[in-house]
Design a protein that fits this description.
The complex is a heterodimer of chains A (about 190) and B (about 180).
Chain A (H helix, E strand, L loop, with lengths): L7 H14 L6 H23 L2 H18 L6 H22 L20 H15 L3 H11 L5 H8 L3 H21 L8
Helix pairs in contact in A: 2-3, 2-4, 2-6, 3-4, 4-7, 6-8, 7-8
Chain B lengths: L8 H9 L9 H9 L1 H23 L5 H19 L6 H21 L1 H20 L11 H32 L1
Helix pairs in contact in B: 1-3, 2-3, 5-7, 6-7
The chains are: A mainly alpha (about 190), B mainly alpha (about 180).
């Protein structure tokens, strides 16, 4: 198609596509480094939150796409990471609402694939996974963010869209529930 | 009031995080955790989650950065191409409907042939209503009075109809 053959719509479309290429929040190199640092954590978070590794695969791509298109500037790596987990949380929440046939928490036993774990570690992980699935999604999110990702109460509040002062009590309750479930599980749970 | 925090939490977390809980942690801290609801739960949960962190690193199945980047670019271009020539938005439809309604009302009040036609239509409507015993509309002495009497209602009705049509068209196109 030559320039003369292009209609006004074609020109507008070409301009829009060119603008889309330039609209990402990061360069490709910066994105690759950021992705390599964060993707496993985000996937693990999504898999635990949703209880569905396949859904976590889809939501992972969506999360990074929305992060790139948001075009926000971040003061630090920590802020960038918080923004990423906020997007992931919102997407997981929306996915729950769309799947109206799913119970509030997933009760069926869904394994997260492990390629290298010895039998003992795999047993441990399924016990913790099973225990986590008995919690509400919000409790799972809080516990994961606090004790796997090491987020502060303020950061957890930002990611979950809650008030910082409420996190202390809610985290205490979530911890109480999970500890109670784990103590009732076989002795292998939580033991290395 | 039940305690929800303890001054020793950070210490417990530190020993769990460095893999020293409980065997290489201070005996008094371990003894404290055995009797403290906060620290006791924290030790159990933090150890369990610590195991999850390590397992997640080794078992997470994520696509390569290049794949995700390429997919994101493709999707951005598709979204951009779709947005070009998008049908008018709801706000634009509403504005168009309001302008149309006002223009129609002004037109109706000022155009002679339109007024005559309106008068004839009103007469016909009255005679039909009379023949089928429908409630009589109050007679307007002339078209100008008719428009003055019913113009606002007609304009509002027209705007509502146009806005409704605009919403339906927008909804179908967006879907």
């Amino acid at each position: 198609m030559t320039i003369r053959d292009m209609t006004v719509s074609d020109v507008e479309r070409l301009n829009a596509v060119t603008a889309a290429d330039a609209s990402f929040a990061m360069t490709e190199d910066a994105f690759r480094a950021f992705y390599d640092r964060t993707s496993r954590s985000v996937w693990g978070y999504l898999a635990r939150l949703t209880g569905d590794p396949s859904m976590a695969d889809d939501l992972l791509q969506d999360t990074y796409y929305r992060f790139l298109r948001a075009g926000a500037t971040h003061e630090s790596e920590a802020h960038r990471r918080n923004a990423l987990f906020t997007i992931a949380t919102n997407l997981a929440r929306d996915a729950y609402r769309r799947r109206s046939v799913l119970p509030f928490f997933v009760t069926e036993h869904i394994e997260i694939a492990s390629r290298e774990d010895a039998a003992g570690r795999f047993e441990h992980r399924t016990d913790v996974g099973r225990a986590m699935r008995k919690l509400r999604p919000r409790d799972r999110a809080m516990l994961w963010l606090a004790y796997v990702e090491g987020f502060s109460h303020r950061e957890i509040a930002q990611v979950l869209g809650m008030k910082t002062p409420s996190i202390k009590l809610l985290l205490f309750r979530a911890r109480r529930r999970l500890a109670g479930i784990l103590r009732a599980e076989p002795e292998q749970a939580g033991q290395s | 009031m039940k305690r929800v925090e303890c001054a020793h939490e950070d210490d417990v977390l530190m020993y769990v995080g460095t893999g020293r809980w409980p065997d290489r942690a201070p005996a008094e801290l371990v003894t404290h955790a055995a009797s403290c609801a906060v620290c006791g739960d924290l030790a159990v949960v933090a150890r369990a989650m610590d195991g999850e962190r390590g397992a997640e690193q080794s078992s997470a199945r994520v696509p390569s950065a290049g794949t995700v980047w390429w997919h994101a670019q493709l999707r951005a271009r598709q979204d951009a191409a779709k947005s070009v020539g998008k049908p008018i938005t709801f706000a634009q439809a509403a504005l168009l409907a309001v302008c149309g309604g006002v223009a129609g009302a002004v037109f109706g009040a000022t155009t002679g042939w339109f007024q005559r036609g309106l008068h004839a239509t009103a007469d016909t409507a009255r005679s039909i209503a009379a023949s089928v015993h429908l409630p009589q509309l109050p007679a307007a002495t002339d078209a100008t009075t008719f428009v003055a009497t019913y113009g606002t209602s007609l304009a509002v009705g027209g705007i509502i109809l146009a806005v409704g049509l605009g919403v339906v068209i927008w909804a179908f196109r967006e879907g």
